[in-house]
Amino acid sequence: MADVTPGSCCPPPARPADGPCHAVRVTTVSAKGTKLNRRGLETRSTLLRVAVRCLAEGGPESVSANLVAKEAGVTWGTVQHQFGDSDGLWAAVLESISDRGPLLPVPAGVTTLGERVTVVVETIWNALDKPALRAMYTLRSALPREWRALEAEYPRTAAALLDWDRKWEQACRDAFAGLDVDETKLHRVRSLLPGAVRGLHTEQHLSSFADLDGARRGLAEALTAYLSE
Asked: What are phi and psi of 21, to 5 degrees?
């Protein structure tokens, strides 16, 4: 994994059964469809990098396209030219993060179920300290929680979240490929992992007595036992 895992993990959003699925694409054109030159591509890259930094280092108040423009030293008009509006900016941020590398890479030679579960748990744990994942959590926490409201107000961002959800689901399948694992149980584990690991990760800032290494091992052992049944 280059810089983030779902669970880069950001807890993937629940996928509404009847919600539309928008296509997500990486673009090298402006919001108006004009091709970006080298300077335009550099500006776009800078804006995305600054946006991730602002989100990773701040709270809900950092979810501001105007703040990103200010920190990047550009005008709001430049943000509009590149992304159209704040929805386009946040969607592009999510796309740029999800394209950084495999979400759950499993090293060669890790073949048993227990080993793979441990790798997945540790990968998510390590990703929680990275700016990209902190940025995702900050962004999602500041957006509407109800899915229909999110789609209505931020349709492109909602589409990017759905794309992230699909990639996370596929990453979990790939991480356990070749093993005799029940699909239903794997789906449940896939839904549980981000919140479970994040809860343990948060506990390190709340308690001086928790054995977090032991807790992660216990979580991996419990998931291995569940998937082995």
From this structure: -110, 110
Which range among 25-34, 44-53, 55-64 has the greatest average pLDDT? Answer: 44-53
Report the b/e string of 30-51 with b at 16+ CB within 10 A. Answer: bbeeeebeeebeebbebbbebb
Q: Which of the following CATH numbers is that of domain 38-228: 1.10.730.10, 1.10.10.10, 1.10.357.10, 3.50.50.60?
A: 1.10.357.10
- Report how far residue 175's alpha carbon sits from residue 123's, in angstroms, rounded to the nearest whole number: 11
Q: What string of DSSP letters covers 139-198?
A: HHHHS-SSHHHHHHH-HHHHHHHHHHHHHHHHHHHHHTTTS---HHHHHHHHHHHHHHHH
Write down the domain spans for the chain.
38-228
Tell whether the model's pLDDT for residue 17 goes beyond 60: no
Q: 3-state SS of 102-127?
A: CCCCCCCCCCCHHHHHHHHHHHHHHH
What mean pLDDT, rounded, does the chain reach? 86
How far, CA to CA in Å, does 105 sit from each of 4, 110, 161, 177?
Answer: 11, 11, 21, 12
pLDDT, tens digit, for every residue of 86-141?
999 999 999 999 887 778 888 888 999 999 999 999 999 999 989 999 999 999 99
Look at the block and give the residue holding tokens 């990968």: 123
- Cα separation, 92 vs 47, in Å, equals 10
pLDDT at 210: 77
